[in-house]
Design a protein that fits this description.
Bound molecules: phosphoenolpyruvate
Structural class: alpha/beta
CATH superfamily: Aldolase class I
Strand content: 15-25%
Order of helices and strands: EHEHEHEHHEHHEHHEHEH
Strand order of the largest sheet: 1-2-3-4-5-6-7-8
Oligomer: single chain
Shape: globular
CATH architecture: Alpha-Beta Barrel
Radius of gyration: 17 Å
CATH class: Alpha Beta
Helix content: 40-55%
Number of strands: 8
């Protein structure tokens, strides 16, 4: 049986004080370890949040990672730097990175590789836009996003990775995929992996992301191929994030 995982993506929100207080609120409310839990804080707050979560069940994640190991890449943050701070997970390929900052399938694959080389678990975000869904391209878009990574690092690398299915049309829009819509794609992703490696397919955590909230999380998490969630807006409030976590 797969263990579930709930990850908060704080995006570019908060201050040092509000971020520390949010992390403390989550830690204080963690009464059960029925699933894994993590928060992806802004880079500059990671060292402070690392102090708050030390020795607790709450793991630390970053919202991206450089596609190069080190060198003349002004403004980038390497996997080695993140590892040194105590980061366990790194989001790669979030749709906001892909659409606003030009992260391509190839650079996402390189980020995935860099994270893994430092023992950081990449959370590979995949998902289609509304236009792609309406044109029946959902599965081909996801194939392409997965293939870029599989071609670079091989299917065996998914043994230490997480996939997040995030339909772009559901992120931050208040429009959640229905339980069945999400399950259909999660099942598809698992079968796609299974065709290459059944053991990894059975093991890998596939999270749903896109306007997940305390009132819709239970239904989503009850679906057989949904192993938890990547939570944006609702992770900025400790109580609602914990409610989502507790609905697993
Ligand atoms: C996200 O940023 O990954 C996300 C799912 O955001 P939201 O929950 O706000 O839609």
């Amino acid at each position: 049986m797969r263990r579930s995982l709930v990850v908060g993506n704080w995006k570019m929100n908060g201050t040092r004080a509000s971020s520390e207080s949010l992390a403390k609120g989550i830690v204080a409310g963690l009464v059960s370890d029925h699933a894994d839990i993590a928060v992806c804080a802004p880079y500059v707050y990671l060292p402070y949040i690392a102090e708050v979560v030390k020795g607790t069940e709450l793991a630390l994640g970053s919202q991206n990672v450089a596609d190069q190991a080190s060198g003349a890449y002004t403004g980038e943050i390497s996997a080695t730097m993140l590892k040194e701070i105590g980061v366990t997970y790194a989001l790669v390929g979030h749709s906001e990175r892909r659409s606003y900052y030009g992260d391509t399938d190839a650079s996402v694959a390189a980020r995935f590789k860099q994270a893994q080389e430092q023992g950081i678990i990449p959370i590979l975000c995949v998902g289609e836009t509304l236009e792609e869904r309406e044109q029946d391209k959902t599965f081909s878009v996801i194939n392409k996003q997965l293939d870029a990574v599989i071609d670079l690092v091989g299917i065996a690398s998914f043994d230490a990775a997480v996939i997040a299915y995030e339909p772009v049309w559901a992120i931050g829009t208040g429009k959640t995929a229905t339980d069945e819509q999400a399950q259909e794609v999660h099942y598809y992703i698992r079968q796609y992996i299974a065709a290459k490696d059944q053991v990894i397919a059975d093991k890998i955590q596939i999270l749903y992301g896109g306007s997940a909230k305390p009132d819709n999380a239970k239904g989503l998490f009850a679906m057989p191929d949904i192993d938890g969630g990547l939570i944006g807006g609702a992770s900025l409030d400790a109580e609602s994030f914990l409610k989502i976590f507790n609905s697993i």
